[in-house]
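Hi C.,

You asked whether I'd gotten around to modeling the 245-residue construct. I have! Everything is below, sequence then structure, no commentary in between.
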Amino acid sequence: MNTAPERCALTVLCLAGTLFFASPTQAAFRPDDAAALKSALSGKVVSEGALVPRGFIKVAQTKGDLDGDGTDDVAVIVRRAAKKRAKRAPDDNEDVPQAVLIFTGDKAGTYTLWKLGLSHFMDSSPDLMGEGGVGDFQIKKGVLTITSDMAVSMGTWSAGGCTTKWRNGSAGLQLIGLTVSDIDRKCACGTTRDTNYLTGLTIFRDERERADDDRPRQRVKRTPSKPQTIPWEVFDFDKLCASGS
């Protein structure tokens, strides 16, 4: 797991006491926490009320048919519940890794763990505006959309986010779209990199203001490439959401 100085380097540029957010970042989910999730859920059929094991907290949940069998599935974002610390108060500034769980549903209304995403979302931070940094989180028309929202509450003008889109197909659950944004809230301008992995096309938009004109200027660059298959199992939030590559 990243140390505090390393997280500062990854998440923010610390200059003259001012914080400028660069891009969303996420630390590795602890191996013991991952083992606890697998032990509690793998190979078991559970009710909707038992999707989150003891010791973990549900941050967000969405339902919809993701595997194409006509029955709703469930995706949940979770993190480890705060543990009581003897003789000292909890560290309120600690970033907490979060995981994405996907369950397949059946007609009886019960669920089975399908996918465990240990490197699929950003850390939760006390400085985030939204709970856990969760933006758009939905299953619609067979596509799972997961958006991290880096809007912060500490007075910085800078924000950003990363949106991943997933669809089940012949190669299994795979990434079909990735959008990475870096926004200056003061001028409502910034950059966006949008990649369609089914076609290979990346669209880069750079929207800045002219020095002598209040109207925004947008530069668009389209870069064609070969389609890529990125299965759920090999996705790395740190790598793809930091660079948009």
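If it helps when you're writing up: The chain has three helices and 15 strands.

Thanks,
B.
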